[in-house]
Structure formats: C-alpha cells, structure tokens
Amino acid sequence: MLSLRDIDEAMNKIELDEFERALRISSEVGLTVKLFDTTFLSLLRTDGHPGVYRQFQPFAGGNRHRKVQNDCLHWCLPGPIESWNDFVTSRKTRKKFKIGK
C-alpha cells in the first residue's frame, strides 16, 4: 500500500481542504462539483512527481548548490497527466452511453 510522505501529504491536505471549500461555495449557488483525486494514481508512476520539490525542502541545510533531480518529463512527454485524461475521458464516455456507473 502506498503512503503519503512529507510534501505529498501536505499538498494532498491542501487540495482536500480547498475542495471542501469549493463544495460549500458551489452548493450555495446550486452547482455540483466532484473531486478526481489523482494523488495515489500519480504516486504509482515514477514520473509522477512535481520537480525538485517532490522531496520536502530539497535545499534544506543551506546548501543551495546541492544537486537534486529535476523533472520536466511529465510536462514534456506523455505521463501522469495523460493518465488522468484517460480516466476522465473514460468516465465521460461511460456516462454518455450509460455504461456502468
């Protein structure tokens, strides 16, 4: 089982808190919103991390010149975001043609 660590946990909490806020606001104006939480889906992929900040405080200790792995792979090539698109497209297609839930 995957578990959230450091920055992943902090970012996920912020995202869920903001979604709760969006739910409250949307219900006041009669809108329905749904959350597609990609946190664990993204953690399953080795290229599913947000740059150097995939580790909590990568430059802690004052070493601003420390070599850390940076990543633009998932922005430049097919990666986690395309997986999210596949899931959303599948969900919309199923709903349109009333296949499953």
From TrEMBL:
Pfam families: PC-Esterase. One of its GO terms (molecular function) is O-acetyltransferase activity. GO terms for cellular component: Golgi apparatus. InterPro entries: TBL, TBL_C. It comes from the Eukaryota. Residues 5-89 form the Trichome birefringence-like C-terminal domain. PANTHER family: CCHC-TYPE DOMAIN-CONTAINING PROTEIN, PROTEIN TRICHOME BIREFRINGENCE-LIKE 9-RELATED. Belongs to the PC-esterase family. TBL subfamily. This is Trichome birefringence-like C-terminal domain-containing protein. It comes from Solanum bulbocastanum. The lineage of its organism: Eukaryota, Viridiplantae, Streptophyta, Embryophyta, Tracheophyta.
